[in-house]
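Design request, C-alpha cells follow.
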C-alpha cells in the first residue's frame, strides 16, 4: 500500500506545461505576451503555425501544431483537424452539411471537422453545453 499524504507524495512531471499566456513575435512591435483567451484558432502549415486572435490579427510562429496542443489547456481548446485547433469558448455554431461537419467561429470562419475526430468532438461539445 502506498501512502499518498502530502508529505509523502512525489510530483511526477508530465511534460505538459499549461499556460495562460503565449509569447508571440509581431514584426512591427516585437515580442509580446498575449492571453490565450483571445486566441481564436491555430492553423498548422508545414512546421509553422498561424495564430489568429479575436481582434483580427494574425501571427506566424515557427512551432508545430503539436507544440501548441501540449501547451494549451484541453478545457479551452480542441483539435478539430490534423492542422487546426480552435478555442471552444469562441465556437458560435456546429453545422452538419452534405460536405461534412463544420465549426463556425465568432469571427465568421468555418473550419472543417475531420471525420475521424467528429464523434469525440461531438461528445465533448455536448458535455460542455
Amino acid at each position: 500500500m502506498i501512502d499518498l499524504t502530502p508529505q509523502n507524495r512525489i510530483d511526477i512531471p508530465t511534460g505538459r506545461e499549461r499556460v495562460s499566456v503565449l509569447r508571440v513575435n509581431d514584426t512591427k512591435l516585437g515580442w509580446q505576451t498575449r492571453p490565450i483567451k483571445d486566441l481564436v484558432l491555430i492553423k498548422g502549415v508545414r512546421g509553422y503555425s498561424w495564430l489568429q486572435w479575436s481582434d483580427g490579427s494574425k501571427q506566424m510562429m515557427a512551432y508545430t501544431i503539436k507544440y501548441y496542443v501540449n501547451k494549451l489547456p484541453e478545457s479551452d481548446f480542441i483539435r478539430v483537424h490534423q492542422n487546426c485547433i480552435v478555442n471552444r469558448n469562441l465556437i458560435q455554431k456546429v453545422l452538419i452539411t452534405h460536405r461534412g461537419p463544420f465549426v463556425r467561429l465568432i469571427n465568421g470562419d468555418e473550419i472543417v471537422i475531420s471525420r475521424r475526430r467528429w464523434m469525440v468532438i461531438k461528445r465533448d461539445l455536448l458535455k460542455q453545453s
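Comment from the thread starter after seeing the answer: thanks! Residues 13 and 114 are 31 Å apart (CA to CA).
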